[in-house]
Amino acid sequence: MDGAASSAPIAGSAKAAICLGRMTSAASRYHPAMHSNLLSLLLLLSAAVGAVALARRFKLPSMLAYLAIGIALGPYGLARLTESAEVESFAEFGIVFLMFSIGLEFSLKRLQAMHTLVFGLGSAQLALTALGTGLVTVLGYGQEWKSGIAVGLAVAMSSTAIVARMLSERFDLHSRSGRQTMGVLLFQDLAVAPCLILLPALAASGDDLLRSLAVAAAQTVVVLALLIWAGQKLLGRILHSAAQYKSSELLMLTTLWIVVGLSFLTARSGLSLALGAFIGGMLISETAYRHHVEADIRPFRDILLGLFFVTIGMMLDIGYVIANAHKLVLAVALLIGGKAAVMLLITRVAKTPLVASLRTAAQLAQAGEFGLVLIQLAHQLHLISVSAFQITLSAMLLSMFIAPFLIARAAQLSGDMGRGDWSHKATVIHNIAVHSLDLGQHVVICGYGRTGQRIAEFLGIENIPFIALDVDPQRIAEARTQGINVVFGNADRPEVLQAAGIARARAVVVSYPDAHSAERVVHIVRGTRPEIPIVVRTADDRDVARLKSAGATEVIPEVLESSLLIAAETLVQAGIPMKRAILHVRAARADRYASLRDFYAPTKK
User: Can you tell me whether residue 252 is helix, strand or coil?
Assistant: First the structure.
């Protein structure tokens, strides 16, 4: 018995050793491939970190960095990255999440408010650009008419990612040119779904084309009607049920389930994955969970979309581009010049001032991310030849690289000091002056976010007049319905501050966290009123010294105030008397805030 008992552990150990040996042997067999995959992943991540950081340094869209990575490391570059079914699948989900995000932005109210710009300028731009590009493709490059339609629709799209970001950073979204540009971009976003249906129908044989288009249209109407009808009844309830558990993880999983599920249904119905995602986003945008869902989905969208742009860059044949450089230069000139000319013509017919027309034309004179989707789909469906695909893709990519510089240059040449056309600036200045005309010894609040609203509330309690400047139309409209003196205006413009009555004001408060813009406001105010008190809010202590040297009377870092309150509460919970904890807070504030030192200094007994 003892021998048998002692032999059992030995036998077990032997079996374990054999299993471990097999696992080790298996691991050694797969090690080279795994090592190669990890090396490729490390190279991709390293390139992404460096390229995106460089793009941010020069204030360029991250999309351009991903495209550059694909071009440099792809099979036509250094050949360090190769295409695979897995990579293409993940990249396709990047488009799915992008379309879902566009759906979240789609609002019937927004569409109704901008219907003239969206369906007027937008439809005209898409139709004329697609028609002109199609004719050039057929007559100039000798392609078939189907290729002309596919290339025309792809080139007609402009980049929402590039343009919207630049307009937002330049506070130009609500100028006349900005509104026109965003109206056209919104129409293009809506037109992507029909284009995704049209291209597969065009790929059918000539005899079956009309029947394919009819079947696709009928199938689309039925599927969309069913999904929208069912989604309106179910999605809100599903999200509400998930939210009741108060778990961000569950809500995110539910959102992913909705996106993938609707994409699967549309794909099984013969439509595209992206179309189902767009419908899901559109339906969720009508629920109370829109903003939470958008925040949760953004990391998936950004990473997968970045991978998509890497795969697009990998398709670019550098050798072919160099060998056909003369054709490419002509194609880029035709793309940028043609799109700009079409937009200039349309806006001038709509009686837009020349300056605003030029800016709108420059803002839309490039290809877009959805155009890359369409041209890739057309290539997969064999609607265009390899040579036409390479020339078109190269021209589209180059136009996107040029776009940020073209938009900035157009703004500079237009003499746009107010980051909007002159008529828009004059209207804004007049409106601000009207609302500040009767004010004197008032406070100018720059930014009407949560901090600005609290400041306005305290000023109102003390009957101190004020005027608040903000660039969010919805926030302004809500404040105006409550009778609060808030007007549209970019506070880092001298003419805006003059119109707000800075010469008659008793103080200025900069309540938004953008330190660069706040520093500019301080410089402008100090140049006009050297003696006026200026209180500036900042996110943390890093910008305090710079803002102080610019002329701020006092700089309030949010991180300091929150840390003081947390520290005081911690002392109280640890058994320290409340009065003693408050004394620590008062001492810290007295040391930090010069103007309030006498008030916060501990009283002597």
Answer: helix
